[in-house]
């Protein structure tokens, strides 16, 4: 899932996601627990939304990619008995190809899918206008992470919530070893077999290897003024590899 697009020696991340878009859903379907973990992150965000005041809650799904995280949000909303007309979700992604894949799916009224850089999109919003922000596999891909988190905090209404869901292996020798083994033994070879974008999957390895530690992600949220910052990881080999971090805007 992509946003502000890093560019290295002519290789542009958004272009790589465009190339990978047709095979993206098939690739992530092979990742154990991928969709369950998105549901977990979406549930964490819904837990942090302010109490409804009669109007629809406004949620952003930054780095929505092909729509899997947006679908997770809607599924959790329905599971909790939320009325369809009480939740407005805007999915934002830099990759036109990924958003095209998302738009090809069926969506209820109240869902909008936008091609945009996440930071640029946030900077166009007024203060205190968003109830919740979900950002799955996004922060790692943003060149100016401080600016992104600051903008997230700025647009949140008091009591609103942010959830960041991503890989992070910094600070854990075990997690770094597992990540290297999985990437070089499974993910990159599978990208070759599936004729997906192989450089993108090599980038996945290095971007996760070099990404913030969980402690640093928490520091970013706290530094932006968010409170009640909490973290959890997942079971099995993904323990200490995949993480969900949430924070709330103070009342």
UniProtKB/TrEMBL annotation:
GO biological process terms, semicolon-separated: methylation
Pfam families: Ubie_methyltran
Keyword Transferase recorded: yes
Keyword annotations of the record: Methyltransferase, Transferase
Key word Methyltransferase present: yes
Source organism of the structure: Ornithinibacter aureus
Name listed for the protein in its UniProt record: Class I SAM-dependent methyltransferase
GO molecular function annotation: methyltransferase activity
Source organism, top-level taxon: Bacteria
């Amino acid at each position: 899932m992509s946003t502000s697009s890093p560019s290295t020696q002519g290789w542009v991340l958004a272009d790589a996601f465009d190339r990978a878009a047709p095979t993206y859903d098939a690739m992530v379907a092979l990742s154990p627990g991928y969709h369950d973990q998105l549901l977990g992150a979406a549930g964490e965000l819904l837990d942090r939304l302010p109490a409804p005041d009669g109007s629809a809650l406004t949620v952003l799904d930054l780095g929505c990619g092909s729509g899997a995280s947006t679908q997770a949000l809607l599924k959790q909303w329905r599971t909790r008995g939320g009325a369809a007309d009480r939740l407005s979700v805007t999915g934002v992604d830099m990759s036109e190809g990924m958003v095209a894949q998302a738009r090809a799916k069926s969506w209820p009224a109240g869902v909008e899918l936008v091609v945009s850089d996440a930071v640029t999109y946030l900077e166009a919003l007024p203060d205190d206008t968003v109830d919740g922000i979900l950002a799955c596999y996004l922060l790692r891909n943003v060149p100016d992470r401080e600016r992104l988190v600051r903008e997230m905090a700025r647009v949140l209404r008091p009591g609103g919530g942010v959830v960041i869901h991503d890989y992070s292996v910094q600070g854990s020798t075990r997690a770094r070893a597992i990540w290297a083994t999985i990437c070089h033994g499974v993910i990159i070879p599978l990208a070759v077999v599936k004729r997906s974008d192989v450089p993108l999957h090599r980038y996945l390895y290095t971007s996760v290897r070099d990404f913030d530690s969980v402690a640093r992600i928490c520091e970013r949220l706290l530094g932006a003024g968010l409170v009640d910052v909490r973290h959890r990881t997942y079971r099995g080999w993904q323990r200490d590899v995949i993480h969900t971090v949430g924070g709330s805007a103070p009342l």
